[in-house]
Amino acid sequence: MFELIFCSLLTILPDYLIRRYVQGKRIGREITLYSVWYELRYGIVTCLMLTVSLITLIFYFHPTATSAVSTFRTIPILPEGSGRVEEIFVANELETEIKAGDPIFRLDSSRQEADVTTAKQQIAEVKGEIALAQGELAVAVAQVNEAEASLKQAQDELDTRQELMDRNANVVSERDIEKLENTVAARQSALEAAQANKELIETKINVSLPASLSSAEARLDEAEVELGKMTVYAGVDGSISQFVLRPGDIVNPLMRPAGILIPADAQQERIVAGFGQIEAQVLKQGMVAEAFCPAVPFTIIPLVITEVQTQIASGQVSTGSQLYDTSEAVKPSTITTILEPLYEDGFDRLPPGAVCTVNAYTSNHERLTSGEPLSTGQFVYLHAIDTVGLVHAMLLRIQALLYPIQTLVLSGH
Questions:
Q1: Mean pLDDT throughout 184-201?
Q2: How far is Cα 412 from Cα 408, in angstroms, rounded to an integer?
């Protein structure tokens, strides 16, 4: 309507003025209800053509996105395993502030506590075996000393008899020498057996039992980790909203989360808007935009486009059991863009999750001032494109002014 009124001032009104003051035709006489088309046909046709062209220029070069949302990040509260809720540490409120590391709830941990007790008993058993092996080592050392002493005694006696035999063969018989040699060999074997037993016990003390102790301690650590998982803690600072979990509820990480945690740095300083695919060649990073959000009435928020997604969601193909059929993508997807406030603290009053209407504006100022050689037609055309953006800005402000009246008064709710 605004475009039609504006264009009529440039076409129909001059045509009427010419008819009235140049040709002397007056309303009610020469210009009647039945002759208005014949008398003002040039102005009416020109007005319609100019209106259509103006609307096309405005909505193409200065696109509008009605599906824009002030997004924020959420973290599902999930335990690493399923179980029954035993204790709740968060107050039953609509929104509760929480710090990183604060407990949220605890699951039933009877089995994990039993595993911890079993692991501790295994450690105690291994330590008892180490103490027992220390006693066995002392016995083995004594047996080695005893075997060495017996061997030395037998060897000394053999050496004495051998010396006597060498001096006088009649004093010692060869049979006695053979017995002593056998005794020395037997006691040498006993010494080697005692030394092997000692080394075996030392290996048990230094290698086998410490490995068993380390395994038992690792099992204890594992059991304590599993026990710690039964209590769910907040990973970041933030707030928990609509937390309705209560003792006795069953929580499953795959089927039933425990709630939602909204981080303090939930990336609230952005608006995600979806523009039509026809504006794909117009949307550029760095474009200035404006947003009107019903949550902040009578306010226009200056924005800037920081990211434009190059892919369109309706064309995505993923691995599945069925072939992709293009007829399934009936509803055309939009071009996702990220917008941030042009000025600092631009979203201070905007609640996260608010729905907005966003206008983006094409600007050719850099091209016009860059010194690029332009023809007169191009120069006028680029100026016209930048100028008609004012109409779209006015429409957005009119919408912001009328929205509270339209919603609270005229809607009937």
A1: 81
A2: 7
